[in-house]
Specification:
Elements lengths: L5 E5 L3 H13 L4 E4 L1 H6 L5 E7 L8 H7 L5 E5 L5 H4 L6 E6 L4 H12 L9 E5 L2 E5 L7 H12 L7 E4 L6 H10 L8 E5 L5 H9 E2 L11 E2 L1 H4 L4 E5 L6 H13 L1 E2 L8 E2 L3 E6 L3 H6 L5 H7 L2 E4 L10 H16 L4 E2 L1 H9 L5 H15 L4 E2 L1 H11 L19 H19 L4 H8 L3 H10 L13
Helix pairs in contact: 13-15, 14-16, 17-18, 18-19
């Protein structure tokens, strides 16, 4: 029988502990109360949240408690907004803080955040900056290349400038953008991601700016755009290089004027949003070819960050593998061990799909070889199975044995190449079409013909 969820309230003051317990139970939560000493000595299981009165810690540090509850999200409570723990929430488990007297909507918002908290999202890499220890989610490694990226992120903690992140597909651009957001003053508000290449051009304006009821055929209700949803937070525009030119003009205007209108409305809306853009494309080349606006490029490229490909920092692969295996173990409740020859095989590979490709491989191995020792043979076999097929790898053509249906053979070949192109392009249809030398509409028609759904293309953090 499943255990009921519960939260642990940590407070050494009897009066405030009772008041907080009453409020939390009024919200429908099962609450267990402890003093700081008993919290550390008597470990409580099956928790979905820790609520800690910051004033009650006394001689205990927040780290002392988080060491005992490493996978539990934390809500800090204090009447003093200038309390050092409230002002320096650099532990990723600290979901947020509540000021006394508690406001019910604020409390419920943080409880919902605790409900959606995932242990596998916890970071495993730290870096010291002065006297402050900052945690970097999944940006593991010790090479100068990734160290530079972390230093860039630290430079942006007190700034609100636009950022342009460049790097190959699968190198971790979105993870860098999330780190920028969660270490900024906007961290208490939303991080909203949009893949500019995955949305048809005719729908992109409505997706970004929203629309009014009746603005166009099919607009049955008013819809908020991503700019409005991200108000006060961060908007991440992934694959900005795939944005159509007419939409680039409208985005430029928003970045310049900090206002926009929903489709079908003339009422301006203030855009209080930090914009982070990312691309795998060479935007300077795109400017010369007339595919990207130079003025938009300079608006976005205020603070550039370049993500190194995995092949440029192979010394980090053991640490990255360790981090990914910890994440996969938490997600699947299964684990694997890698032999020294397996690690060497991972190091010898060039990883054209970068960390995403490595993550996909390790996940496949975790599911297929649960609780086993993986050797180089298994690594080589899986790499061959998932290897990208390029014209140079196409085998010499030979006729099949006996009679065969050429039309069916060619259809199957075409469908397979479309799937490969979509996988390589992270499900972005326009990029896959460019890879295949097809128009986007033509590719969409072929996907419909072969019943290929881009949502079925597996992908992880970009």
């Amino acid at each position: 029988m499943a255990q009921p969820r519960k939260m642990l309230l940590v407070d050494d003051n009897d009066e405030s502990r009772y008041q907080l317990q009453t409020l939390l139970e009024f919200a429908g939560e099962k609450v267990v109360t402890r003093t700081c000493e008993k919290t550390i000595t008597n470990i409580e299981d099956n928790l979905f949240a820790l609520v800690i009165n910051a004033n009650s810690l006394g001689d205990y540090s927040l780290e002392t408690i988080t060491e005992k509850y490493p996978h539990t999200p934390i809500i800090l409570v204090d009447s003093n907004k200038n309390h050092p723990l409230i002002q320096q929430q650099h532990d990723w488990r600290v979901i947020g803080s509540l000021a006394l007297p508690l406001k019910y909507p604020d409390m419920m918002a943080l409880i919902r955040k605790c409900e959606s908290f995932k242990p596998e999202d916890l970071p495993s890499q730290t870096i010291n900056s002065g006297n402050t220890e900052v945690l970097f989610k999944k940006l593991v490694g010790k090479t100068p290349e990734i160290t530079k990226v972390r230093e860039n992120i630290l430079q942006l903690t007190d700034s609100d400038v636009n950022v342009l992140i460049t790097g190959e597909s699968g190198s971790g651009k979105e993870m860098v953008a999330k780190n920028i957001h969660y270490l900024s003053k906007r961290s208490n508000n939303k991080f909203v991601a949009v893949n500019c290449g995955a949305i048809p051009s005719e729908l992109l304006e409505s997706e970004l700016f929203g629309h009014e009821k009746g603005a166009f055929t099919g607009a049955m209700t008013k819809r908020l755009g991503r700019f409005e949803v991200a108000q006060g937070g961060t908007l991440f525009l992934d694959e900005i290089g795939d944005m159509p030119l007419p939409m680039q003009v409208k985005l430029l205007r928003v970045l310049e004027d900090r206002t926009y209108e929903r489709v079908g409305s003339n009422t301006p809306i203030k855009a209080d949003v930090r914009v982070i853009a990312a691309t795998h494309c060479n935007l300077r080349k795109a400017i010369l070819e007339g595919r990207f606006r130079e003025d938009l490029y300079y608006r976005l490229n205020v603070f550039p960050i370049e993500i190194p490909p995995l092949r440029a920092r192979k010394e980090d692969i053991p640490l990255i593998v360790q981090n990914l295996l910890q994440t996969l173990e938490a997600r699947h409740k299964k684990k694997i061990r890698l032999s020294s020859t397996a690690l060497k095989a991972l190091n010898d590979y060039d990883w054209p799909g970068n960390i995403r490709e490595l993550s996909n491989l390790l996940e496949r191995l975790t599911v297929e070889f649960s609780n086993q020792l993986i050797d180089a043979a298994e690594i080589s076999q899986k790499l061959k199975q998932q290897g990208r097929i390029t014209p140079s790898r196409i085998p010499e053509a030979r006729l099949p044995e006996g009679d065969f249906d050429l039309k069916e053979l060619l259809s199957n070949l075409e469908a397979n190449y479309i799937k490969l192109a979509l996988e390589e392009s992270d499900g972005t249809v326009s990029r896959a079409a460019q890879r295949l030398g097809l128009g986007r509409t033509t590719l969409v028609e072929k996907m419909r013909k072969y019943q290929i759904d881009r949502d079925d293309i597996s992908e992880t953090d970009s």
